[in-house]
Queue: 2 jobs
Job 1
Amino acid sequence: MSRGKRTQLVVSLLRRHTVKRWLALFGIGAMLGASILLIKLSLNELRSVPAASYAESETVESQGTSVKEKTASRITETAAQLRQAEPDEKNDVNVKERNEPQQEDEKAAAPQTSSELDGLIVHVYLTKEKRIENVPLETYVRGVVAAEMPIDFELEALKAQAIAARTYIVRRLMQGEESDASVHGADVTDTIQHQVYTPLAKLEGQWTKAQRKANMAKLGKAIDETRGLVVTYEGEPIEAVFFSTSNGYTENSEDYWKQQIPYLRSVESPWDKAISPKYKETVSLKLSEFHKKLGVKRKGFAKSSLRIIERTEGNRISKIRIGDKVFTGREVREKLELASSQFTWSVKGDYITITTYGYGHGVGMSQWGANGMAKEGAGAASILAHYYSSTAVEQASKLSAQLAQRS
């Protein structure tokens, strides 16, 4: 082969090699580009998944005018009046409203191991210590149940109390009610102004060493088995009002307060009479003290000067004439510091003897009634459905959009 032909062959081979190299490089580049594009698309897709899931789980559609909007004037008027009551102490004035009442199926609103409430912190002002304690919401609920209901109550009654206590604080946090918490930065106090609360450090000290383990386990079970559950009416957490002992019936809200609340209706509560030590109480007052506390004239006062004008649906005194004045049953109860607004009386000499039936204002859940229902086999959801008419026990996840703002 001549030198010229060899040169021509080499050049041809080099050209072919160069073309193949560029084709190879182009192919590699194309593959890399496609891979990068696929990675970007995958990342975008992955990013969209949690965002979509969050939006789906956290978005709650509007269900019409909220309870707060419907009853704004009511809440303003009675913010200081709606308080919680404890069954065995003097804490008898408690906190401040679709489904059909639930049957015995307690699995309808089964609790979760965690809930949307787990991230919430409650700032509790400890009045005696004059400091704010910051605790997780479920820890707060435990302290309220321990303070508001005797530990020897049935487990299902304690669970009903836990759900009511949780409902109260969730509603308060969602509505941003802090104006009556006494101290800036506190959500609630540890008194009957809101809910009575016992910190863990004091809680363990109120029982003997032998009682402590069993009582703490029972209390913990009541909280754990209701974790995240609240009582709702038309999608809103209710005013979970409760009191110690009924006279056989609960009261309509408007018969004690001025506001008619659809789920606070008068219902029968026959269990209290048989089991509550607070059902009946008798006190005696000098007539001079009786007149002074009520601000009525003693002159011309006689037995006939006391006359019931009207009774409530819950069989308590609605209006009563005493001397020259007409009072509501609530006014007499509060002025004379009576246990209930259902009472009878007798006058003998310079003394008046008054016998009351029931303990507390009578609106919402009767704690001793709840214990009576539990003794008969009722579950927490059934107890709550009985005392809070046309309500539902639901997981707080249904309120997640509002709760997320507090987390």
Job 2
Amino acid sequence: MKALNLVTLILLIVGGLNWGLVGAFDFDLVAAIFGEGSALSRLVYVLVGLSALWQIMPLMSAFRIGEAHAEAGHRTTAARM
């Protein structure tokens, strides 16, 4: 699991840097390396997207846990009144 998290984190950093280059300089590094519209470029883009989905799952769990704690605290405070 740790290896997969590391790989997806690296892919997200690559994707973020690539978008930064596109926004700042209109330069797509992935397309420059692998060829515009090539199968490898598309694969990198898909892997970056899948990495984002993988990395968002723990974030969603954290929000659910945070909501449960907040809800429990609210009930406790309401019970004291």
